Amino acid sequence: MNNKELIVALAEELSITQKDVTAMLNAYVGELQQALTVEQPVAFLNAGSFEVKTREQRLSVNPKSKRRMLVPPKMVLNFVPTSTLKNKIKKQDSNE
């Protein structure tokens, strides 16, 4: 599902205009970005949670040149689904 499809589906579900849904989604994404920027986890009921984690520095080897290099630490976004969501996906997968 892309952004446009999501907007259309939500507009139909909520019986509001696509313009209003777009404004709500833009505000939602802005708040999500703001919270994650300050490394605050964001949880969604029955879906999961987003959190920012720090990956430690590590040694890596370039497979072509066999040269070793140090990869610096970095921040990564992590999503942890709830068990409810995991079970729904498993049920849907087993039905196919």
Radius of gyration: 19 Å
The major sheet is characterized as: 3 strands, antiparallel
Pattern of helices and strands? HHEEEEEH
Shape: extended
- How helix-rich are the residues, as a percent range? 40-55%
Low-confidence stretches: none
The percentage of residues in β strands lies in 25-35%
> Would you tell me the structural class of the helices and strands?
alpha+beta
Distance between the termini: 20 Å
* Oligomeric status: single chain
> What is the typical, i.e. mean, pLDDT?
92
Enumerate the strands of the largest sheet in spatial order, edge to edge or round the barrel: 1-2-5
Helix segment tally: 3
Got a strand count?
5
Question: What would you say this structure looks like, in words?
Answer:
- There is one protein chain.
- With 96 residues, the protein is α+β, with helices and mostly antiparallel strands.
- The protein is 47% helix and 28% strand.
- The strands form 2 sheets. The protein has a 3-stranded antiparallel beta sheet with strand order 1-2-5. Strands 3-4 form a two-stranded antiparallel sheet.
- Helix 1 packs across helix 2 (18-37).
- The chain is extended, with a radius of gyration of 19 Å.
- The mean pLDDT is 92.
Write the layout of secondary structure elements.
Layout: H1 3-14, H2 18-37, E1 42-44, E2 48-55, E3 58-61, E4 68-71, E5 74-81, H3 83-95
Helix pairs in contact: 1-2
Question: Summary?
Answer:
The protein is α+β, with helices and mostly antiparallel strands. Helix content is 47%, strand content 28%. 0% of the residues are buried.
